[in-house]
Amino acid sequence: MASSKLEVLVDFGDSPDKQQVDKTIKELTSREGVKEAQFKDGAIMVETSLPSTEILEFVTKTSGRRAVLQGFGDGQSAVAMVSGQSCCGGTVVGVVRFQQTGDVLVADGSIDGLPPSSEHGLHIHSTGDLSEGCNSIGDHYNPLGSPHGGPQDSADRRHAGDLGNIRVGDNGRATFRITDRILKYRLWCNSTVSWYIPKPQKDMRLRRHCCMGRKRSPISRQGKERGEKMLPKSLLS
């Protein structure tokens, strides 16, 4: 699995305790999914295939100090802030970071305020137009006009914007790290972001308006069979 490089700033103070730093690094590198970790200039540099939120929580717990993510990725990357202000009563908040590593796109994030123990689809839509809420965001990003499939399907058998499902814990938080070879970083240039979070086990929709042209495509029969008839009519064929 593709790894990401994280820069985790830890509040060790002006004179970090070497024993405390070494203990944090040792326990971090012993975790499965962590390839490398080292302390440099007040921050812990981590190469990992784990979600960044999981790394932050572990460093905070192990060191006993506050930790924040200061850097993500060492190449092309973008950040999407999540807000439920246009739906869900404004209770849904989070962040998703995108990183392109070779031919793999990483979507790493956490979202709070979702119904506990629920499951949602994570989709990118064809426009970022929120003038009519979820009625104006367009269909799934689908430049090839492919049928509705799953994230493991080939490009001609799935929507490029379909990134699969995320699962929510008992605390209402979804922590995830998705890798995808169909969607590319070039989608994220010159763009703005917004989110729509619907009911559990329906679709979560990310809209992003990019510098690329988009081709609208109808929602597939398979999508309708999976319950999308509950969504606003403008999202359906």
Automatic annotation (TrEMBL):
Keywords: Antioxidant, Metal-binding, Oxidoreductase, Zinc. It is an enzyme of class 1 (oxidoreductase). Gene3D superfamilies: Superoxide dismutase, copper/zinc binding domain. Its EC number is 1.15.1.1. Residues 222-231 have a biased composition (Basic and acidic residues). It catalyses: 2 superoxide + 2 H(+) = H2O2 + O2. Residues 139-166, 215-237 are annotated as: Disordered. InterPro entries: SOD-like_Cu/Zn_dom_sf, SOD_Cu/Zn_/chaperone, SOD_Cu_Zn_dom. Coiled coil: none annotated. Residues 92-184 form the Superoxide dismutase copper/zinc binding domain. This is superoxide dismutase. It comes from Chilo suppressalis (Asiatic rice borer moth).
